[in-house]
């Protein structure tokens, strides 16, 4: 079986972006594959949508996203940076399946864009024996 990778010039599954405003919260729903072919468009769409006066928070709804790659993760971080410059909070919702797994592995789900990263517990102190062997010069 031969698999030919899809290029951005080829027709892709339908990818749509829609927005809905609920008071000071702007929800952007994404549908389809969030990959290299649409990543830049997502950042531009979200940045332009967040310019509306009175928006205090942006919510990215990934409920209908079926695929997410590194370019998609980079796009989500780009959205966070774009709206963060306007002091707008950003949150990811609805991620499931492989999309949630990619977000968790990349660290984006643990600290959703716009939220401060979780504090890591301090690394355990090595045992006395491990410290002694680490400092011992080799001969």
The share of residues in extended strands comes to 15-25%
Give the count of helical stretches: 4
Structural shape = elongated
Summed up, the domain count is 1
The radius of gyration over CA amounts to 20 Å
Structural class: alpha/beta
In CATH, the homologous superfamily goes by the name STAS domain
Largest sheet report: 4 strands, mixed
What is the CATH third-level topology name? Transcription Regulator spoIIAA
Report the CATH architecture.
2-Layer Sandwich
Query: Fraction of residues in helices?
Result: 25-40%
**What is the class in the CATH system?**
Alpha Beta
Elements, N to C (H/E): EEHEHEHH
Number of strands: 4
Largest sheet, spatial ordering of strands: 1-2-3-4
The N- and C-terminal alpha carbons lie at a distance of: 57 Å
Stretches with pLDDT under 50, minimum 5 residues? 1-5, 110-121
Structure description:
This protein is an alpha/beta fold. The chain has a single domain, classed as Transcription Regulator spoIIAA, CATH 3.30.750. It is built from four helices and four strands. A four-stranded mixed β-sheet has the order 1-2-3-4, with helices on both faces. α2 links the parallel β3 and β4. The termini are far apart. The model is unreliable at 1-5 and 110-121 (pLDDT under 50).
